[in-house]
C-alpha cells in the first residue's frame, strides 16, 4: 500500500491465506493482538482496493464470517494498521538539533551514579522506544529481560567476562535476546543476531536519549557457559542471548574511555570502481 505504484488488486491470494490462518490460530489459541492486527491490515487493504473501484465481496464476506465467529476481532478499526501519512516538516521537527553532539555524547559508561538516583521508570520507557527498531518482516524478535535486584545482578554478572570493577554498580542489568522461533528457513540463520543486535543498539540509544548511562556487555561465551548461565537465568531455550547491557544513572561528572574510531577511509567506500562489475560468463 505504500509503494510508489501498487499493482491494482494486489495481495488477494495472501489475504485469503491469512484469513485462513487467523481462523485457525484464533480457534487454537484464542484471539491475540496479532490476529487483531492481521485482520485490521486485511481490512485496510480491502478499503484501499475499494477506494480504487475494486470491491472484493468474497473476501468481505469471509471477513464478516470471521468476525461473527470471533467477536473480539470486531474492533479492528481501533488497531493501527495499513498506511499512514507522514509529513516531512513533522519529522524534521523531531530531530536532534545537533546530531553530531547527540551521537558523540553516547559513551559506554563504567562509572555509574548511585542507585538511589536511578529512575526505574526509564526501563519501560526505553524498551518501548527500542521497540521502534527495524526488524526483519517486522517480526520483532528482540526481547529485554531486565533485572534490578542487586543480588540478581551480582549473580548474573558472574557469568559475563567484561564487567569486573564496575558491573556491580549498575542499577539494572538487561539481557537482550532474540527469539529464534520467528525464523523458519536456512537463509535466516543469522537473522536473530542481526535483529537482536539492532534491538540492543536501539535500546542503548533509547537510554541515551533519556539521559541514562549504559555499557553493553558481550555474550561471547562457549556453549557450556551459555547453558550454565541458563541454569540460573531461565531464558527459554528458543532464544539466543545477544548481549547484556549494564544500565545506571549518570553522575554529574564522569570519566569515559576516549575509544578513538578508525579512519573514515577504512570503513567508508563510496562508488569504489573496483567493486562493481557484471558477473563473468559462467563457462
Ligand atoms: C556487543 C558489545 C559488547 C560489549 N561488551 C563489553 C564488555 O563486556 N565490557 C565493557 O566494558 N565494554 C563492552 N562493550 C563496550 C565497547 O567496549 C565500546 O562500545 C567500545 O569500546 C566503543 O566505546 P563507546 O561505546 O564508549 O563509544 C561492548 C560493546 C558491544 C557493542
Can you describe what's shown?
By secondary structure, the protein is of the alpha+beta class. It folds into two domains: 67 residues, no CATH class; 152 residues, NADH Oxidase, CATH 3.40.109. It is 40% helix and 11% strand. It has ten helices and four strands. Strands 1-2-4-3 form a four-stranded antiparallel beta sheet. Helix 1 runs antiparallel to helix 2, helix 1 packs parallel to helix 3 and helix 6 crosses helix 8. The longest helix has 19 residues. It is globular and about 65 Å long. The model has no long low-confidence stretch (mean pLDDT 96). Flavin mononucleotide binds next to strand 3.
Give the cofactors and ligands: flavin mononucleotide
Number of domains: 2
Averaged pLDDT: 96
User: Sheet bearing the most strands, described?
Assistant: 4 strands, antiparallel
Q: What is the gyration radius calculated from CA atoms?
A: 24 Å
Helical percentage: 25-40%
Q: How widely separated are the two ends? A: 43 Å
CATH architecture of the largest domain: 3-Layer(aba) Sandwich
Identify the CATH homologous superfamily of the largest domain.
Answer: NADH Oxidase
**Strand percentage:** 5-15%
Strand order of the largest sheet: 1-2-4-3
Strand/helix succession: HHHHHHEHEHEHEH
Helix-strand category: alpha+beta
CATH topology of the largest domain: NADH Oxidase
Low-pLDDT parts are none
> What is the CATH C level class of the largest domain, in words?
Alpha Beta
Using DSSP, what is the number of strands? Answer: 4
Coarse morphology: globular
- Figure out the total of helices: 10
Amino acid at each position: 500500500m505504500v509503494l510508489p505504484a501498487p499493482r491494482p488488486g494486489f495481495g488477494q491470494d495472501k489475504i485469503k491465506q491469512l484469513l485462513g490462518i487467523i481462523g485457525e490460530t484464533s480457534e487454537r489459541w484464542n484471539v491475540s493482538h496479532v490476529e487483531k492486527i492481521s485482520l485490521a491490515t486485511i481490512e485496510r487493504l480491502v478499503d484501499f482496493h475499494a477506494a480504487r473501484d475494486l470491491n472484493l465481496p468474497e473476501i468481505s464476506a469471509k471477513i464478516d464470517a470471521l468476525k461473527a465467529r470471533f467477536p473480539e476481532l470486531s474492533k479492528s478499526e481501533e488497531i493501527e494498521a495499513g498506511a499512514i501519512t507522514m509529513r516531512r516538516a513533522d519529522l524534521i521537527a523531531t530531530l536532534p538539533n545537533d546530531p553530531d553532539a547527540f551521537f558523540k555524547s553516547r559513551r559506554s559508561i563504567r562509572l555509574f551514579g548511585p542507585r538511589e538516583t536511578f529512575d526505574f521508570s526509564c526501563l519501560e520507557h526505553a524498551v518501548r522506544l527500542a521497540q521502534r527498531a527495524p526488524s526483519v518482516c517486522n517480526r520483532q524478535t528482540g526481547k529485554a529481560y531486565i533485572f534490578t535486584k542487586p543480588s540478581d545482578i551480582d549473580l548474573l554478572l558472574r557469568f559475563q567476562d567484561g564487567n569486573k570493577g564496575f558491573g556491580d554498580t549498575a542499577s539494572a542489568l538487561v539481557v537482550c535476546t532474540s527469539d529464534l522461533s520467528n525464523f523458519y528457513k536456512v537463509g535466516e540463520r543469522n537473522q536473530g543476531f542481526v535483529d537482536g543486535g539492532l534491538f540492543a543498539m536501539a535500546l542503548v540509544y533509547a537510554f541515551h536519549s533519556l539521559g541514562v548511562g549504559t555499557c553493553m556487555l558481550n555474550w561471547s561465551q562457549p556453549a557450556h557457559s551459555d547453558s550454565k548461565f541458563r541454569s540460573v537465568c531461565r531464558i527459554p531455550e528458543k532464544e539466543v542471548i545477544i548481549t547484556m547491557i549494564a544500565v545506571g544513572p549518570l553522575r554529574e561528572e564522569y570519566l569515559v574511555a576516549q575509544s578513538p574510531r578508525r579512519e573514515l577511509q577504512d570503513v567508508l567506500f563510496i562508488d569504489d570502481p573496483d567493486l562493481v562489475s557484471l558477473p563473468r560468463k559462467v563457462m
